[in-house]
Amino acid sequence: MEDGKILVVEDQDAMRESLVIAFKDEGYQVEGVASGEEAIQRLNSNNVYDLVVTDLKMKKVDGLEVLKAVKNANSSTEVVLITAYGTISTAVQAIRDGAYDYVTKPFRHQEILKAAKKAIEKKMLKDRVRYLEGEIRDKYKFEGIVGNSNAMLEVLKITSHVCRTESTVLVTGESGTGKELIARAVHYNSPRKDGPFVVINCGALPENLQESELFGHVKGAFTGAIRDKMGLFQQAQKGTILLDEIGETLPSTQVKLLRFLQDGEIRPVGGNKSIFVDTRIIAATNENLEKAVESGKFRKDLFYRINVIRIHIPPLRERREDIPLLVEYFLEKILEKFKKGKRVFSEEAMYAFMNYDWPGNIRELQNMIERAVALSKSEIINVDELPFPVPVEEFAALSRNPLDDERKKSFIVTTLAEQEKNAIIEALNKYGGNQTKVSQVLGISTTTLWRKIKKYRIKSQHEISDNVDN
Fold first, then answer.
1. Residue 336: other Cβ atoms inside 10 A
2. Beta bridge partners of 171
3. How far is 305 from 178, CA to CA, in rounded Å?
4. Are 17 and 32 in contact (CB under 8 A)?
5. Does residue 470 lie in a domain region?
6. Of 93-102, 145-154, 312-321, which has the strongest mean pLDDT?
7. Mean pLDDT, residues 72-98
8. 167, 214, 356, 381: which has the fewest C-beta neighbours closer than 10 Å?
9. Residue 284 belongs to what domain range?
10. In this structure, are 287 and 332 located in the same domain?
């Protein structure tokens, strides 16, 4: 049994009725209309569909006009076109304009059922990304942080609490995991949000200029110091300073950082007077500071001072369930950046994404997607177009093995089902088990919601209710 609401637009009665029956047999909610005009009326009457299946050639209002109306009404609704062989070029153009796919006449029901299933799965994933982004923005206001795994939800929970404090924060995690995003979230959701947010990569500072850059210097402090210079700490007055890669600071710099954390004071290089600075420190590192303390590279007392509240971001390989959401998120942003038409990753490409270990984490994933989109020449990006640093023949080979192919498809669908289940649980808990409210928020009927609750055996922490006012 499938879930989803489909509108069939077909002016040939026999074809329309056979499609409606075929979709209903698969468990979809289906409506059929005999013209493009009627389809547009339905769309303009606030009817919400997951998928519109429309004939391309119809009298008066054709499939292209229906496609335009669909995207104006709800950009996330997918469209599959039915076209004759002679109009394939028009259908290809329609895909560039936002249609998901097309099937050519004559076709078997299995072909269009397969296209419909993939289109609705695509919509589910897009809706899930938007839902999570909205939930995160509403609850945490954390821009650009995407993830639904238990590990990331725990990171967001800790971060939301840290925002309300003035405590020094240590953000740890491998390179590319998004440490600066978390630091920005802390700053822009704190009482200091109207103050400056200053970022400095300590490892990128030349050793002889490290103290001068951070704390400033006075004229004549060293050769080349021809005037007084304000350091980054003073630039971050009333705001937040992110000391990225703090493990790369020199011992002399560490002494000055310790003094600031103890007294709130800094002293410019060559100066004889201390300056009080009101700024919050967030430190970040991909280094194991405990080992750096043991080896004598990092001061133990400074470590204790910065390790007041620690936020550890797990590597991407430990939260693979977030990958489909991240792929969808970055793909949408990159397509907008390059002003490119529709692009989708093939199932083999997505399987490769899910099974690669991502040593460069989210940054590597984003860069790979951007490069693939920039160089792509067709709507579907295949696994051989992905610039993996290791051979990917093993991923491509899966498509030639029927058993592995079924296992791969099952894996991807299971991931989507888990995301859907989590979305329903979150919404039920947020709205006290009120099914009517939850169905409105998720954009599905109460009947569909009830079926999904039963399907996933969901038990809300609240008593489930149908009363809108509860």
1. 9
2. 284, 311
3. 23
4. yes
5. no
6. 312-321
7. 80
8. 167
9. 150-316
10. no
